[in-house]
Amino acid sequence: MIINWKNKFHQTSTSVFIYIFTLLLCKFQECTQQLVIKSINVPPLVHAGEVDYVILDCDYDLKNISTEGLVVKWFYNYDNVEYQWIYGSEPQADPSSSHIDVGYKASDDPVTMYRAMKLNNPTINLTGDYRCAVFTFEDEQIANASMIVYSTEEIFDLKHRKKIVDGKERVEVTCNAEGLYPQPSMDITVNDVPLNETETPDLTMREDGKYDIMTQVSIMDEDLPRISLIKCTLSIPIANYTNPREFTYYTGTPTSTPSVTTNLLRKMEIQAINSSEPDTDNGGAAGASILSKNILFIIIPIFGVIGNH
Hints:
Layout: H1 2-33, E1 36-41, E2 45-47, E3 53-61, E4 71-76, E5 80-86, E6 92-93, E7 100-101, E8 117-120, E9 128-135, E10 140-150, E11 155-165, E12 168-180, E13 185-190, E14 193-194, E15 202-205, E16 211-220, E17 227-236, E18 241-250, H2 260-275, H3 284-308
Parallel strand pairs: 2-10
Antiparallel strand pairs: 1-3, 3-8, 4-5, 4-9, 5-6, 7-8, 9-10, 11-12, 12-16, 13-14, 13-17, 15-16, 17-18
Helix pairs in contact: 2-3
């Protein structure tokens, strides 16, 4: 029994030693021979029309691996090979990818010189998932990243008009924006409080892939305070983009008030009447005539200014 126990202990110890030695050997080989992608650098957000180009970089290290069979590929949305470089040859790009600059060099190292992809004049159609794949005859590595090329509004209008429906006054608010990407959102608030009656915005995708969006609400005056700040906020949530527009609204029917010009003319008319009364001591008739002419000359330029405005 003692001999059998010693034999089993010896066999177990030997197996454990071999297992540990194998792990250490594999670990050593990984550290000394493994192909490594050190980093993949892809800008997560790009504003279309604001930059001339973007660089998608895939920095790798061959360690002690041979360059035989070295190939770098960039995939768009994982399936389409957009860019490929075979070590020792010139890089190539998909003929349909007009944005790619195949002559761009990411480094002076001949082993990593054409590892990156330069995209000129990025547009919204470059939004997607990108994959960098590095191959050799001995190993291969893959890294993924995403990029969103967003487009802000071409047009953004906030309009309102007062209406009377069933004898009650209300304000109709219309918020409209065009030419956004990716899908935008739109909210209307009153004094920073969201409207419960806000309907789902009318969203339309255009042929060029961009979106138009419109929201319209009608609010009764009796549901509003005397003075309200009405705001429309346009957003592209995935791009962390927001743009607010606002106006101040006063409830009640606007009262007509005399303009400055009207007040001035009335005042001059009163002065003219008072001055036209005969003044026998100072040649009243002549004085009134001269004053009337002067008033006429003053009124004419005033109406000229009004016409220009």
